[in-house]
Design a protein that fits this description.
alpha+beta, globular, 41% strand
């Protein structure tokens, strides 16, 4: 059975501003890594069918061993669909020897304008079984909080 993870929040910025932060290399490096991690983009091609490769490094790997190495998660992302300013669909594959992290996870970022800004909902499907649901949803929520802080202070 395929599992679905999700998280959402309202961000005090218009949908176009949020959408732009989803497709800007420097922005993604700043806000996408959840709390306790930092990220570096190694490859960047922001178009449908393009994507990026990100190395996420744990600041304290003792509490959260990485999927790729003791201290890192390396993920290759393909932009499966870009519908400005409403939706970004990413397909993610983790670089890992452990087969419990194998497979292509789909992350869909839905952006809906509201009176208060943009309601952002992230839905992740086809989750590899090695990824803990509660930890993943907390990570998505952390990234959304970072995104909110980033766009609300830079606009």
């Amino acid at each position: 059975m395929s599992r679905t993870d999700r998280a959402g929040r309202v961000i005090a910025a218009p949908p176009a501003t949020v959408y732009d932060a989803l497709l800007d290399r420097d922005s993604l490096e700043a806000w996408l890594p959840p709390e306790g991690m930092r990220g570096q983009i190694q490859r960047w091609d922001p178009r449908p069918g393009g994507g990026f490769r990100m190395v996420l490094t744990y600041l304290d790997p003792a509490d959260s061993p990485g999927k790729t190495s003791e201290a890192t998660d390396v993920v290759d992302i393909t932009f499966a669909d870009l519908t400005p300013p409403q939706r970004v669909v990413q397909q993610a594959v983790f670089e890992a020897d452990d087969p419990s992290y194998a497979g292509t996870m789909t992350m869909t970022w839905h952006l809906v304008g509201t009176d208060d800004g943009t309601e952002v909902t992230v839905v992740a499907t086809h989750m590899p079984p090695g990824i803990d649901q509660a930890a993943h949803e907390a990570g998505i929520a952390s990234s959304l909080a970072n995104l909110a802080a980033y766009v609300e202070t830079t606009r």
